[in-house]
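pinned: reference chain
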Amino acid sequence: MTKPHVVLIQTGGTLAMPVDDDDAGGTLAPGKAKIDLRAVVPGIGRVADVEVVELFNLDSGDMQPSHWLTMARAVHEALMRTEVSGVVVTHGTDTMSYTASALSFLLGPLPKPVVLTGAQRPLGDLRTDARANLVDATIGATLPVPEVLIAFGARLLRGCRTSKVDAWAFDAFASPGAPPLVELGLSVQVAPHVRGKTALTPLDLSIEPRVLAVRVFPGLDPRLVMGAVRAGVKGLVLEGYGTGNLPNLVGSSLIPAIEEAQERGVPVVVVSQCMRGHVDLERYEGGAAAKWAGAIDGGDMTVEAALAKLMVGLARHTDPAELRAYMLADVVGERVSAGVRDL
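pinned: its structure tokens
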């Protein structure tokens, strides 16, 4: 029986970093030598016929939107090939959720799986999680799960619903608003809420990176937010309290900044700082004032998804009404319906 064909795109991260003994506390950094993952992790060859594409070798802390575009192009080219069952992308964990969200919106609904994975410890470590994650990602790339996913800790999570929640544990990612799409235990279980297969659309690499996320906190000077708006920010994501509440007393209110943003054509999206739940801008006075001033309800989107979606949306929709409709729509599963349980 012919094995599935999987394209493995390498972009760097801890997984590929050289180290003698991570427990010794040495500093991790991308290595100069290339790593043949098929030789180091031969188990992936038992799952699929793996084709390796070496894109770049970066610490994910150095990832920029320009790198997302390079990845999106490489992934799109692979998905266009009829013999390819799916794509795996190795990536550092620190910004993996941002990249997963960006690829989700840049590529749109998919016909095949695109699975990002990485590791908390390098492949060279005795206690590495890299091998298991890479095997799981390769398995995921052969399954009928046509979405951008993150494979980590024996689970495949919807990429645009994830956040990195632990800097030290192997179970580093959570999907606060949607349950796993696949769980890899003694058997492989695919969840019923996987999105349906969709024909691949032409690739649009338009993106507007000049957006800003601001976490609201007691003492935040509204003049700082106003200054960002006046300095040329093209979009603003506010991480509000709870259901999207914002300070609203004279002297600390963010509402004038939102109003000026609207006057300057700068969309403002409000998401929640909470890991679970969703924004309801009508629940409290501060949120209602923000809505009245023109803020967009971010629903249950993660800040990573909101930022990536706003970058893509700004580039594709110059009409404010069209952009608002795009941000309020569920495009790739980033805004999960209330019927899906929280995890």
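why pinned: The domain at 211-328 is CATH 3.40.50.40 (Rossmann fold). The first helix runs from residue 37 to 40.
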